[in-house]
Amino acid sequence: MQKRFDQELQARLVRYAAVDSQSDETSASTPSTKTQLDMLNLLQQELTEIGAQNVEVTDDSVVVATIPGTAPGPTIGFLAHVDTAPQFNATGVKPRVIKGYNGGDITFPDDPDLVLSPDEHPYLAEKIGHDLITASGTTLLGADDKAGVSILMTMARHLLENKDISHGPIRLAFTPDEEIGRGVTERLPKDLGADFAYTLDGEDVGEIVYESFSADWAVIRIKGVSIHPGLAKGKLVNATHLAAKIVQTLPQVTMTPEVTDGREGFIHIVGMSGGSSEMEIKLILRDFEMDALEAQGELVRQVCATVQATEPRAQITCDISHQYRNMRYWLENDMTPVELAREACQDLGIEPISVPIRGGTDGSRLTEFGTPTPNIFTGMQCIHGPLEWISVQDMAIATEMCLSLVGKAARNHGNSAS
Fold first, then answer.
1. Which residues, other chains included, contact 29 with Cβ-Cβ below 8 Å and sequence gap of 6+?
2. Which among 1, 124, 198, 200 could disulfide-bond with 118, CB atoms 3.0 to 4.6 Å apart, if both were Cys?
3. Residues of the chain predicted below pLDDT 50
4. In this predicted structure, what is the pLDDT of residue 181?
5. Quick check: 197 and 336 in contact, CB under 8 A?
6. Where in the sequence numbering do the catalytic residues fall?
7. What is the C-alpha separation between 299 and 251, in angstroms, rounded?
8. Whole-number pLDDT of residue 415
9. C-alpha torsion angle, residues 382, 327, 194, 170 (rounded to 10)
10. The three-state (H, E, C) secondary structure of the chain, written as one string
11. CB of 170 closer than 8 Å to CB of 159
């Protein structure tokens, strides 16, 4: 594989990862954090500087741009998200480059006790000789999804500087708030204007994903009866105790993330807050099949109703809302974008991998809203935590694959027209 993109990809990811752009699910603003605007404004400026056309920020704070086509072909969209996950510290990221990884344990300067070992992470053992990028030990890296951003910006710069490369029109979109499920609204398909699209938000080289979880969000609110504890006998209803009952009654041995894998779904408590008078429990519900997801929601409601019956003086409500749906429901009706990506992989000598992703992407929502959008690998690993890392060479393969893909789409269009 050529090394023509390695230096640019490394420089971009190091630069982008150092920009704080963590999203916040408790915020009602768009984007959810002002820091994301720093990344969005930077990308808007860089796209303009490299010669992209129609560069603008939509009403949903999505940066969109056009790479004009040099040949007839479908309009292909490419997306990456600028926000980093709220699950772990992402302020003060200090990216570092490990040149020519030697195959041993990787330690971190800001947390000497933290170790990234190839014994525990087999994919790392395959990257001997690669240039790796990690954070310093006290933050995540943010390769999810600034690796995707770096790949798309590198591809865009290359295509705009090399107009002899045949490809159809390309639309780029950089979204906020993907990590909290708010990066794509029903307006984006029109703003993007693509026949089909791809998110650059996957992991292992060769990964072409067209199946994701279906997802709902649940909020349980408990209102007890508050009174001075010295006068509480027969009167106090402690919301904290009722919250504990709900948590204990929900399945813990068979239906939580830590005991499920493959195609198994889960109910995951992501937060609890409050006190003796009022409590709030937040949960995410996940399954690949809609009937199983609906059954999870019904189970949560039944648990709430059961605990409510034990204490009629309390008020317990359970609100479940739609997040995203399995993209397979739509893509299986027309696998053209999936097959195109697979062929582009094979042209580079890479065996494509299509496994269900135990999560969701912007493509899950975009597909649901009418633009078929499978997900493509970037190389990111150990995401959402301090061990996060990525190979520069894996990113370069993803860049080459995207270039192969847009060229193949134009050639296929020409062949079908003739």
1. none
2. 124
3. 1
4. 87
5. no
6. 83, 178
7. 9
8. 75
9. 30
10. CCCCCHHHHHHHHHHHHCCCCECCCCCCCCCCCCHHHHHHHHHHHHHHHCCCEEEEECCCCCEEEEECCCCCCCCEEEEEECCECCCCCCCCCCCEEECCCCCCCEEECCEEEEEECCCCCHHHHCCCCCCEEECCCCCCCCHHHHHHHHHHHHHHHHHHHCCCCCCCCEEEEEECCHHHCCCCCCCHHHHHCCCEEEEEEECCCCEEECCECEEEEEEEEEECECCCHHHCCCCCECHHHHHHHHHHHCCCCCCCHHHCCCCCCEEEEEEEEECCCEEEEEEEEEECCHHHHHHHHHHHHHHHHHHHHHCCCCEEEEEEEEEECCCHHHHCCCCHHHHHHHHHHHHCCCCCECCCECCCCHHHHHHHCCCCCCEEECCCECCCCCCCEEEHHHHHHHHHHHHHHHHHHHHHHHHHHC
11. yes
Q: How many CB atoms lie within 10 A of CB 360?
A: 22
169-192 confidence digits (pLDDT tens): 999 999 999 998 899 999 999 999
Instruction: For the full predicted model, state whether its pTM sits above 0.90.
Output: yes
Q: Which residue has the tokens 């997040």?
A: 323
**How buried is residue 349: exposed, middle or buried, by Cβ count under 10 Å (0-12/13-18/19+)?**
exposed
Cβ distance 124 to 134 under 8 Å? Answer: no
The identity of residue 260, as a single letter, is T
Q: Report the percent of the chain where pLDDT is more than 70.
A: 99
